[in-house]
Amino acid sequence: MEDGGLGAAPGSTVGVPWPKGAYQKEQTFALTDAGGKAVPVQSWPIAYWPDGSLKWTAHAVGSGDGTLTLKAGTPAAPEKKVTVDKSGGTIDISTGVITAKIGTSGSTIVKSVSRGSTEIAKNGRLVLIRQPEIEDEDQGAVKTERFDGAVSKVTVEQEGPIRAVVRVDGKHRKGGRSWLPFSIRLYFYAGADSFRMVHTLTFDGTQEPAKASGDFVRGLGVRFQVPMRDKAYDRHIRIGGDGTGLLREAVKGITGLRRDPGAAVRTAQFEGEKLPDPATWDQRVTTRLQYIPEWGDYTLSQLSADGFTVRKRTKKGHGWIGAGGGRRASGFGYVGGASGGFAFGLRDFWEKFPAQLDIRDAQTDTAEVTLWLWSPEAQPMDLRFYHDGMGQDTYPEQLEGLNITYEDYEPGFGTPYGIARTSELLFWAHESTPGAERMAEQVAAVRTPPQLAAPPKQLVKAGVFGKLFSEPDRSTSAKAKIEDHLDFLFTYYKDQVEQRRWYGFWDYGDIMHSYDPSRHQWCYDVGGYAWDNSELSPDLWLWFAYMRSGRADIFRFAEAMTRHTGEVDVYHLGKWAGLGTRHGVQHYADSAKQQRIANTTYRRYYYFLTADERVGDLMHANVDSDETFLVLDPIRKIRTEPYTPDRNALSIGFGTDWSGLVSAWLTEWERRGPKWEKAKARVLSTMETIAAQPNGFVQGSALYDLDTGRFAVDKEPKVGVSHLSAMFGLVELCAELIDQIDMPKFKEAWLDYCRYFNATKAEQKARYGSDFGSLLLFQGHSRQDAYAAARTGDEKLAARAWRQFYNSADTWDYKETTDWSTKKIEGPAGLVTGSEAAWVSTNATALYGLAAIQNLALVGDKMP
């Protein structure tokens, strides 16, 4: 496992895969550093192979640097253990350095955080400001309501000795109303002076299109109180600016005055050190200390991705003055003094604007700190649907809209009710104000929390995720060219995120779908061509690119996408819980609510690589999502025959529908989750009944029984093949299923589908009695040729894989004739100076990336 050093972070947790049969459930593991010294580690299983052997294990480490080696053995005990005491009215967690008291009811989540006998912070809670009306013209008097987070349930999920995890669930409450459910996890590591918070909010308010009344969030934050014990000149404020930059001030500044207290005194205050007795200063300063203002209030406000401001005032009721500003703030702050202080940070501060940090009343006995996930100084959170449908009242009219803007519109479907967002925060309890170097480490930990990682060699050796990737290989010019193209595509999208400003609380992590070369702009405002929402699996492309390379920049990009697509593009409450939304101008705008977007496959990689509990929640929530087919027919607008959803005869496709379902079931089975036995039965029964169809996967769909978990086997063969069927994770899931489950008929059914999608129409007709009709995405499907070739040793299929990869007739696909370059854009052609590759689309990028990676791994030795 590798890491550049945990630095100021509280610790790190990593997932490590093992070959089938290598270790059993009871196996323990030991960790050593590069010098062979034992490193304390806490280990637990997170997935099993079907034979019960360990597939993935998670390992929590409180400290470490460089390369760490994990082997079977007895783990070293930490010097300082995490302990959890549930005997009192609170849950008390000690890291050996700090102790936190977690509330089990009421509005206070963290009652106190202490270091030794000194209380550093207290009354940690959630705050929410609701604005019931929003006016586009004359604002008038804006009314707001304040809600507090009310705890309904607290669960201790881990109790040490290296890591403890506490989950807190509840809603925001005022009077008789409770809304905006939250789920928070608090993470504590042995020996750490800090803890981590993962905060998830689910939106369940009402915002009707074209109406100015509803539930508009004006501010959403996490708030703590900080006891202030030091003299005003020994109280320190730190605000993170650009990079590791810091505003370093005191509540009562004694620098820059007309009279000089002395160089040593000035330097000590700037460094955050306790000042010598004022009797030793220049008395012209000492005797006039009472005349120096005390600055108790500070605000860092980031209302866009490109600008922040810092201001301060002496106290409430007095005017603000500017204290500086810059482009992108780190989201870090500190308030405290020589006798102790509290540092805090919000990850992705500017990327997920509008964000804000407040320090209030630092001149009093108790300061107040608020980390605003949504700044109250920004425009209210407006999630109303963006247009009126323009006469699209009937299905035929809606299909005409689809034909022009590629948006699947339906009244009432463009709702944000049930979408969610997860944020990460870090907190430190200090015995005194840290020095600049230590704070710079904390800033870095907020910006990019260290992440231990299993190296690509281990991922390949373990044979996980269907054995569909290998390490980069530039041994021939043809392979090197493909590697260059893969690098080009990732770099281009990474640069486009910056150039096009794909940032914001609800947007960061996603990318756009299609490009408009006439405007030199992505189609951000054109119906279904705007936000991508996992269309054709860019999530998978990124995770496969990371797993084969181990590149940190790809990991962070894929991580942000997983956090976004798993939360914002999927419904977690309401009648569509368990379904995701097709690509559109808003992440929830399109009326196509489908399994293919909620697909657990897109979350599996991040979960198994990091053991992230929140993503684990998302995957577990999908286990019963087959029930959603009773609520909404995914092909209701194009179905020609009469159809009424029937619990025992649901029409479900073997492609985008089943791939999402079986992914959730397989994951629950692997994890041995609460419903794993049911999930296992669903995996096996659906595999069996797909394989039993007259034409296997080519049959396309069948009637599914929710009670038995089986497809009805059609009596007559039919051909139901779509170019989309396998492009939402089915290729990857079938490879995993075949690798884990010995079911020859299923394997043969899948290999047949792989053999014949890219076959000639004559070959398809000879095999199935009918050809597959007009198809697309041949390059993306070349990886199915490669898979079948690798499984059967068929040299002709291997050759066809590369032929289709290079020479697809599909105009969406890249050709080797493409110049693989970008062109410069500058004013007045574009809003900002940058670059464009007008030939790039995200559909084609994702499929090129997956086909290139998998073809190289499967039939790289058969390249022409």
Describe this structure in words.
This protein is an alpha+beta fold and 864 residues long. It is built from 20 helices and 37 strands. The strands form eight sheets. The chain has a 20-stranded antiparallel beta sheet that branches. Strands 2-6-5 form a three-stranded antiparallel beta sheet. Helix 13 packs antiparallel against helix 14 and helix 13 crosses helix 15. It holds the Pfam family PcRGLX_1st. This is Tat pathway signal sequence domain protein.
Unreliable stretches (pLDDT < 50, length at least 5) are: 809-814
Biggest sheet overview: 20 strands, antiparallel
CATH fold group of the largest domain: Beta-galactosidase, Chain A, domain 5
What share of residues is helical? 25-40%
Overall mean confidence score, pLDDT: 95
Distance between the termini: 36 Å
CATH architecture of the largest domain: Distorted Sandwich
Strand content: 25-35%
Helix tally equals 20
Quickly count the domains: 5
Which overall shape is indicated by the principal axes computed on the Cα atoms?
globular
Class by helix and strand content?
alpha+beta
* CA-based gyration radius: 29 Å
The overall strand count is: 37
**Class of the largest domain, according to the CATH hierarchy?**
Mainly Beta
Domain PcRGLX/YetA-like central beta-sandwich: 82-442
Pfam family, one: PcRGLX_3rd
Domain PcRGLX/YetA-like C-terminal alpha/alpha toroid: 449-863
Domain PcRGLX/YetA-like N-terminal RIFT barrel: 9-66
